[in-house]
Design goal:
TIM Barrel; 320 residues; single chain; alpha/beta; globular; AKR
Amino acid sequence: MATIRLSSGHQMPQVGFGLWKVPNDVCAEVVYNAIKTGYRLLDGACDYGNEVECGQGVARAIKEGIVKREELFIVSKLWNSFHDGDRVEPIVKKQLADWGVDYFDLYLIHFPVATEYVDPSVRYPPGWFYEGDEIRPSKATIQETWTAMESLVEKGLSKSIGVSNFQAQLLYDLLRYAKIRPATLQVEHHPYLVQQELLNLAKKEGIAVTAYSTFGPASFKEFNMAHATELTQLTDDETIKAIAAKYNKQPSQVLLRWATQRGLAIIPKSTSPARMKENIESSNFDLSEEDIATISSFDRGLRFNQPTNYFPSEMLWIFG
């Protein structure tokens, strides 16, 4: 499998397996099957609420000799309510214990949003709200959080660190004071949201980019977002289907290849072993430059994973 060399010196698989919305009751089996299929990058997070089960799937695969720990690239993320500097290391140690591993290969700041601490013994994962429907901000700065993230590398708790859902201005600010530069940037990226200027900046600064929600609105239909339910699903689009037919591939494979051929890493998710195999095999062909340009022309600057799409407007003062 192709890998991407990170600024930290480590190699990251270009095609990984995303763990967002994998149900707890099947998660261990799904992770085990993903590893059997050939996935070596597993992309998890505190907020997904399934890290214990992810660890169970990893432990089973290791026990059966399918893989060794050092052959896996395990990713997790820091949730908003643990941004205060003294909260970072304790929650990372809890997450490592949930996974049953000694270190993460990559640990990310999940969102550039700091909210008030919620004790894991009270509620875990904490979610966006302090209690009820109240969002309480923390005064932690990104610099404070990043300094604590850097200590994770120094203490061997994570080999690389990075950020997620950051835009250009925040990256520029972070790079001013970072002693350890972010190895990766994980962002929503699909033909409806190409973000080419952000990708150009990341490339210039040596930051690898991981794309999530490569299939666009498909991941967000369940949240009843009007622009997710009313849009044509990318895998059903006639242009995408025609391109797929030309290469004798599935539309989903074309969308994934559009991302990887442009140098991005991807983390598609499926609970179906057959679909897992299709996704991991999406890099075994090349799209023409004309087809890449055609898919990129779908760009509408349309973002799904943002607070304004989830919460009533009166709750959004915290996000500016």
